[in-house]
Amino acid sequence: MKKLVDKTIFITGGLSGIGKACAMAAAQEGANVVVVDMPNDLSSLLMQDIVAINLKAIFLACDVSKMDELKSAIDKTVQVFGSLDVALNNAGIGGESNKVADMTEKAWQQVIGINLSGVFNGMKYELIQMLKQKKGVIVNMSSILGKVGFAQSSHYVAAKHGVLGLTKTAALEYATDGIRINAICPGFIATPLLEKGGITDHSKIMQHIVDLHPMKRLGRSEEIAKGFVFLACDDSSFMTGSTLEIEGGYLAQ
């Protein structure tokens, strides 16, 4: 039996990597899928793939660092589908690598603006809509680096720690309003985000990252998508303020 039939799923950063895998998984589970991302050449191709699975899907162009754009995207979602049942705040970037003293203000603000403020911006208007409905589910994409440090990535680490704090706080605030809020902490996943950071299959950095995981491999986006479906559906009905770690043993060390 499909687990998300007729649920409206709102996914930021849904054009590639983990977001794309979650969008595809939601469509396969019968959901109405709203893919939210910066516009690019991938949008029409991805939407063709999703529509082939489930005709009820739309793409909305949006910069998550801009609160008014997220509000408009959520308003459009409700206008088209009538409700907002599940939101996945997934949009994120890696940013440039540097030690704290060498980090530029521009680099810091860019990562914080998308990876942390972008989650807050989404949650604010997702919650306003879900409170009207008296129900809803929010899943925030954090990282293993939301639980530990990682040299030369202070902006990313700070943002992902912040996502977990925001998740737990909001979960407490809305626990009696029919709204569940949880987070996922993936390990390093084979996605375009790694490639943008210059980490290729044959680099020494890649081998080092693989070796950090006791399972000696990177995760796959589809593995994270399965965790998302679990948190999005009623199988996790007694979970809120929790963190689902899908990380090949990274945090067990």
From TrEMBL:
Name of the protein described by the UniProt record: SDR family oxidoreductase
Residues making up the signal peptide according to the UniProt record: none
Family per record: Belongs to the short-chain dehydrogenases/reductases (SDR) family.
Statement: the UniProt record of this protein carries the keyword Ligase: no
Gene Ontology MF terms in the entry: oxidoreductase activity
Organism: Candidatus Defluviibacterium haderslevense
Xref: Gene3D superfamilies: NAD(P)-binding Rossmann-like Domain
Keyword Lyase listed: no
One Pfam family, short name: adh_short_C2
Sorted UniProt keywords: Oxidoreductase
